[in-house]
Amino acid sequence: xxxxxxxxxxxxxxxxxxxxxxxxxxxxxxxxxxxxxxxxxxxxxxxxxxxxxxxxxxxxxxxxxxxxxxxxxxxxxxxxxxxxxxxxxxxxxxxxxxxxxxxxxxxxxxxxxxxxxxxxxxxxxxxxxxxxxxxxxxxxxxxxxxxxxxxxxxxxxxxxxxxxxxxxxxxxxxxxxxxxxx
Length: 182
Known about the structure:
The protein has about 180 residues and is of the alpha+beta class. It has helices at about 20-35, 60-65, 70-75, 155-165, and strands spanning about 10, 45-50, 50-55, 90-95, 105-115, 120-125, 140-145, 180. A hairpin with an 8-residue loop joins strand 4 (about 90-95) and strand 5.
């Protein structure tokens, strides 16, 4: 497969931040809400590591003709020098939800994370027509730990990565420095 150029941003985790599902998810929800304050939050793949979040833009993945789900499954088995193992993967940002394929879409802000044991955590809220104002009355939190049913078309990435022995190799372009966001 030909290499593709991806924009990967790294956000260091705060020392006072918990590493449980809820704390990790809430930190990412805060990031989405901050982004919505500036405009529509971009859709990104999230890779959670012990000391950082790697955020990969979804656009170039789709433009390269790759399946986002397959790409995420490959990330579950990826290694990055000096970065530590992948603890969780997911999606966050603004998406379009459609009740049926032919139905018009509605803007949705979401954070969905899945851990190595396939447990998951999700926050989501519909957005006003401007694509940036949360409709707080539609906000939901659900998780595998609570016994909620997993949303369709999300997750299963760790199982897929193991079954297909997939891996994505990430490396900086020659002559570039990794971009760290504090």
